[in-house]
Amino acid sequence: QVQLVESGGGLVQAGGSLRLSCAASGRTFSTYAMGWFRQAPGKAREFVAAISWSGGTTYYADSVKGRFTFSRDNTKNTVYLQMNSLKPEDTAVYYCAARNSGSGYYSARQYDYWGQGTQVTVSS
After folding, report:
1. Neighbouring residues of 78: CB distance < 8 A, sequence distance ≥ 6
2. How many whole angstroms from its chain centre is CA 100?
3. Are 48 and 94 in contact (CB under 8 A)?
4. 13-72 pLDDT, tens per residue?
5. Alpha helices, H only, 14-121
6. Cβ contacts of residue 14 below 8 Å, gap of 6+?
7. In terms of DSSP H, where are the helices of 30-93?
């Protein structure tokens, strides 16, 4: 069992930056692929970014490519999502997710564990 706790959300003006963190429990964190998803009011949850277990490969949604950076520190059981040049359309609840096995990164159904979410609000 893995527990995920997100932090770092908040209110920021358009063009600003935030860094989200997701701390994971469990000794096997370094074997998990990790993902970030987001859900805006009235919309479906959507893929934002993912990272392989080693951190060597990252994947991004087109809408955040070049603005967001996903990284992990396996010594701290933590992943980070650095979000720059934020836009009002980035406003959503952001969820951290962990995948224990299998393959694929883009679908929420591929992930086994989820955090409670952290709110990100970008004002115009």
Report:
1. 21, 22, 23, 24, 72
2. 16
3. yes
4. 999 999 999 999 977 888 899 999 999 999 999 999 999 998 889 999 999 999 999 999
5. none
6. 86, 87, 88, 122, 123, 124
7. none
